[in-house]
């Protein structure tokens, strides 16, 4: 028999499929559409490693199956190629980012093609192509014109090593996500996008989509909507305090506003704490405390937000010397400065309720503040009682539940003009400027007379000038600032001399709308034709990494909503379904990384075992959503499995029709694939194949061509090359991928029971009801557990068992 040699068959089919354009998506086909999307890769210099392939192989099998089911499938691919790694590589080697990108893309493409993935290559896009980023710039201009892009002097996270400003999301544990250097603060003029304006819709519309629950939860937490109350505490030292009416409207602010979600605890306030950056701090410091407070503020300036709010860290503070008045009982409350209070959240001031907040409890213990119980139910001599409960020590509100009290106290204070309901979000506006070369230029012009003027649409794209020097300036300015012949332009409005904006966009820009471009990738008049957008969108199934939940996924939902608002996107949500895969760790259990030397290259695996083995292994390695370590042993096991597929197919194609139980088994497998694929249980699909194959091999005489053909059809989305090869070997002329996906017969797969006769030493002693395809192992186990059998076998050694499938089992003792 001919041997299974993937090297001989895989390149052959890849070429053929390519030539026949088998995976081309057809605009406006009458078939129902399915848009299957994977996150497009960043073409790095290192090439793909096996970890990257997990989502590609999984969604490739989905795309292939859907095509066979009669869908018009769009399964596109492209390159998210702007960004720092390429720029840093260029700085190291002197190879221009554009050249490096070209080379990297070619390498990634070769690797993808060797895997035989069913991408529609005719729709390939690249975010660094001016024809593409023209539209990224165009979208930016729409945002600008609608007031959603604005400049602000803001403290940015500054990486002193990369010499770049970082978005909050790019700071991990206070360190630069890329290089690990401690991040500092730096004040800089930046472009920001007003994503906060969409915060509510980004939360509310999650109800419309089918995302994994943990993805929804992460997005909701990240946006961090908090409904509470802003409460005013007067500062009595200011003159106007005698006139209660004018206090709040006084232009010289003589009150501190705190944000709280727990007005029910307000009778228990024993201090206020202001962020060191709070605008009133200077005014509140008394002479005696000045030195201490100033030195405290200096120290906290050096800390990142992360360090300041880290949960385990002890909270510190210093007394300002001043007091304010609690509006519910006119008590004198000391005002402290503490850097655990974040200036940019909730107004930068908090009321301290030590009895009912853990952080406040520790703070009070440390500095000897009073701990006053106002919610009963806990033991506040030991710890803070943070739950809701019944009010005590709270004047006329005693006896109310926390829920009622929040409502009543808030309303009461609101009437007295000491409070108003307030909503705060943790989400900040999206810092959209980078001071780097390898990104989309922001298409704006600064004119002294006219201010900020957009580049006219007909002049887009503003191309990135091809230059030799693209070192960061280190001053915080973009390298583009040094290219005077590019920077100096005429103002499009008044014709006077003006300068281009030299900041570029962050690497999240191009990926915020790429899935729209796939619908019409070569359109040079529009971002995409409305008809095509309408036909293909929304994406039916989008898979990507969990690490993109609060960045890319949120950003692209924001852009899509905006594009909907200006009449371009056909719906308000871009992705109907979102799933996520677990990462693949190296064999040693660590992250795959060049620095650990534990990266597995798909090229090597394909060379040794073939693409089908690699792909099946990627699916089989473990539950799709979980992190899993690579196993060479596992790869070998999959290779043997495919050898068995080969063997069974070639050996069993003589007979026309299979036995009833083989037919039943293949129908069961068919059902399993249909169900498990939708549930992303790719590993159990492969396990199902293995089980079926063992049954077939053990009972070769019962297996006919009908079953082999069905098995190959079922296997083709997963192990495409071997299935196609064997399909042709069975005498078919057309590709297996134009066949229809098999359907299973519900009646056939019903678990049929048979009566198995039990013999001991050749004599009938018992009978048992079992499944038709019960294995010898299982039959033996069930038999030996039976009381009637135990009578004969207890204490005796089982010498032998004879098993006649579907008929009897004989135990010899
Ligand atoms: C008094 C209080 C009593 C609070 C109590 C909690 C429990 P979320 O839900 O996250 O919005 N807070 C307000 N502004 C802050 C800031 N700038 N930095 C640090 N903490 C701040 O939390 C709102 C709560 O976080 C507020 O409610 C406030 O503490 C604190 F038993 O007020 B609370
Ligand atoms: Zn001008």
Query: Roughly what is the average pLDDT, rounded to an integer?
Result: 92
Q: Give the strand order of the largest sheet, numbering strands 1, 2, ... along the chain.
A: 2-1-25-26-10
Ligands, deduplicated: ligand ANZ, zinc ion
Shape: globular
Secondary structural class: alpha/beta
Number of strand segments:
32
- Oligomeric composition of the shown chains: single chain
Low-confidence stretches: 238-251
Span from first to last CA? 41 Å
Q: If you compute it from the alpha carbons, what radius of gyration comes out, rounded to the nearest whole angstrom? A: 34 Å
The amount of beta strand, in percent, is 15-25%
Number of helices: 26
Instruction: Outline the biggest β-sheet.
Output: 5 strands, parallel
As a percent range, the share of helical residues equals 25-40%
Descriptive overview:
There is one protein chain. The protein has 813 residues and is α/β, with parallel strands linked by helices. 35% of the residues lie in helices and 18% in strands. It has 26 helices and 32 strands. Strands 2-1-25-26-10 form a 5-stranded parallel sheet. A 4-stranded antiparallel sheet has the order 6-5-9-20. The protein starts with 5 loop residues before the first helix and ends with a strand. The site of zinc ion has 9 residues, from loops.
